[in-house]
Design a protein that fits this description.
The protein is α/β, with parallel strands linked by helices. The chain folds into 2 domains: 2-33 and 277-378, Aspartate Aminotransferase, domain 1 (Alpha-Beta Complex), CATH 3.90.1150; 36-275, Type I PLP-dependent aspartate aminotransferase-like (Major domain) (Aspartate Aminotransferase, domain 2, 3-Layer(aba) Sandwich). Helix content is 41%, strand content 13%. The chain is built from 16 helices and 12 strands. The protein has helices at 2-12, 27-30, 36-44, 67-79, 90-101, 116-125, 147-154, 174-184, 203-206, 215-218, 235-238, 260-275, 279-294, 316-322, 331-338, 361-378; strands at 23-24, 83-87, 107-111, 128-132, 158-162, 188-191, 210-214, 226-230, 299-301, 310-314, 341-342, 351-355. The strands form 3 sheets. A 7-stranded mixed β-sheet has the order 2-8-7-6-5-3-4, with helices on both faces. A 3-stranded antiparallel β-sheet has the order 9-10-12. It is globular.
Length: 379
C-alpha cells in the first residue's frame, strides 16, 4: 500500500502535457497561449501570494507590481469601459453583475447560444431566465430583434449577449442590441470570453453597460482569470465595499487574483493589445481553412461567411470510420497526435470544434493535408 502511494505521489511531481509542442487548434487554448514575457513572469511570481508583497488592503491599488496602472489606466480604454477590474474568469464577472443588480425571481433575457455558466450564475441568484432562440440548424444564428417582444413581455432586469458564442463562433449584432436596450433602459452585459483579447471589441461603441473577458481563453494568460469592464454609474453597486472592511469589495470577496494568473495577464497585455489590431488576418484564414475541410466532406455549422476563428464541424465521414476501427472514437485523436496536431477532444469524431487562431497558414495547411491522409488511410 505504501509503495503504491509513493508511486502516485511521484506522478504528481512529474506532471507534463503530452501535447505541449503540437500544432494547437484547440479552441479553449489557442487564445490563451502564453507569451515569452508571461512565461518569464510566471516563474518570477510563482510563489503563493507573490503579488501581495506591497498591498495596503486593495489588490487593484497595488503599485509594485503595477496592478493599479493595469486596472485603472490600461484596461478601461482597451475594453471601452469607464471602470475595470480583474476577476477569476468571465463566469465570475457575469455572476458579480447578476448578483449585484437583481433579486431572486427577477427575469433576465439571454441569447440561446449562451454559455452554460450564464445559466448557472442566474440559478445561483434564483432568477427567471428567458432565452432568445437561435435560428436552428445549420447556422444557429441569433437575431437581436427577437429580444424586443421578450423585453416587452417580461420586463427583464438585465440583458445578456454572448459575443461570439463558444459553440459555433457566431457574432450577432451586438451594437444593434445596444441600441435596443438603450430604448428600454435595461442594463446590458456583453460576454466577450472569445472576443476580448482576440479581436477589437469596445463596450462603449457597442452600447453595453458591462463587458466580460477571459484571460485564459483569449488574453494569453494562465488561468483562471478574467476582466470586467463597466460604466462608472455601476461602480458603487458592483464594486461596493464591505461595511466592516472598507477597502474590500464584497463581490470580489475582498480581493481577486493573487498570483500567477494576474501576472501573466499583465505581462501579455502589450502583445494582446497589438494582436487585436491584426484581426483582419484571422478571419480570411478561418474561412479558407473551413472551405478546405468542407471539400473533404466535413460540414461547418454556424453562420456563413464565418467571422471568427472558432469553427464547428459535423464530420459523419470520420464517425463512420470510428465505428469500424479498434480505437473507436479515439482513432482520430491518435492519428492527429502522431502527426503533431492537438485539437478535437479525444473520443470525438461525429462533430467537433477547432480554432485557427494560433496556427499560421502553413501549419493549417499541414492540418488539412493530415485530414486528407487520414481519410485516405481508412477509405
Amino acid at each position: 500500500m505504501g509503495q503504491a502511494r509513493s508511486k502516485s505521489l511521484e506522478k504528481l511531481s512529474k506532471l507534463h502535457r503530452p501535447h505541449k509542442s503540437l500544432i494547437n487548434i484547440m479552441p479553449l487554448q489557442t487564445g490563451g497561449l502564453l507569451t515569452q514575457a508571461a512565461r518569464e513572469a510566471l516563474i518570477e511570481f510563482g510563489d503563493g501570494y507573490s503579488v501581495c508583497d506591497f498591498c495596503l488592503g486593495n489588490l487593484s491599488n497595488i503599485t509594485n507590481p503595477p496592478i493599479r496602472d493595469f486596472t485603472h489606466e490600461f484596461l478601461p480604454p482597451f475594453l471601452g469601459s469607464e471602470v475595470a477590474t480583474i476577476t477569476h474568469g468571465a463566469r465570475e464577472g457575469i455572476f458579480m453583475v447578476i448578483h449585484s443588480l437583481t433579486q431572486p425571481s427577477d427575469s433576465i433575457i439571454v441569447d440561446g447560444n449562451r454559455h452554460y455558466t450564464t445559466i448557472v450564475a442566474a440559478e445561483r441568484v434564483g432568477l427567471n431566465v428567458i432565452g432568445v432562440p437561435n435560428s436552428g440548424y445549420p447556422e444557429f444564428k441569433i437575431n437581436v430583434d427577437d429580444y424586443v417582444p421578450l423585453i416587452e413581455k417580461h420586463k427583464p432586469k438585465l440583458i445578456l449577449l454572448t459575443y461570439p458564442d463558444g459553440s459555433y463562433g457566431n457574432l450577432p449584432d451586438a451594437k444593434k442590441l445596444g441600441q435596443i436596450v438603450q430604448k428600454y433602459d435595461i442594463p446590458y452585459i456583453l460576454n466577450g470570453a472569445y472576443s476580448v483579447g482576440r479581436m477589437p471589441v469596445n463596450m462603449a461603441d457597442i452600447g453595453a453597460d458591462f463587458i466580460v473577458g477571459s484571460g485564459h481563453k483569449s488574453m494569453a494568460s494562465a488561468g483562471p482569470c478574467g476582466v470586467l469592464g463597466m460604466k462608472k454609474k455601476w461602480e458603487d453597486i458592483v464594486l461596493r465595499k464591505s461595511q466592516a472592511y472598507r477597502n474590500k469589495e464584497i463581490e470580489l470577496l475582498g480581493c481577486t487574483l493573487r498570483g500567477v494568473p494576474l501576472i501573466t495577464l499583465m505581462a501579455s497585455f502589450p502583445y494582446v493589445q497589438e494582436r487585436v489590431l491584426h484581426w483582419d488576418e484571422q478571419v480570411p484564414k478561418a474561412q479558407w481553412f473551413s472551405a478546405e475541410l468542407e471539400k473533404l466532406g466535413f460540414k461547418q455549422l454556424g453562420e456563413k461567411p464565418h467571422r471568427h476563428d472558432l469553427l464547428y464541424f459535423e464530420t459523419p465521414i470520420l464517425y463512420d470510420i470510428s465505428r469500424h476501427v479498434r480505437e473507436r472514437g479515439y482513432f482520430l485523436y491518435k492519428e492527429l497526435k502522431e502527426r503533431g496536431i492537438w485539437g478535437p477532444q479525444p473520443g470525438l469524431t461525429k462533430a467537433f470544434k477547432v480554432s485557427t487562431f494560433a496556427a499560421d497558414r502553413k501549419q493549417l495547411g499541414f492540418v488539412i493535408d493530415s485530414f486528407k491522409t487520414i481519410l485516405s488511410k481508412y477509405s
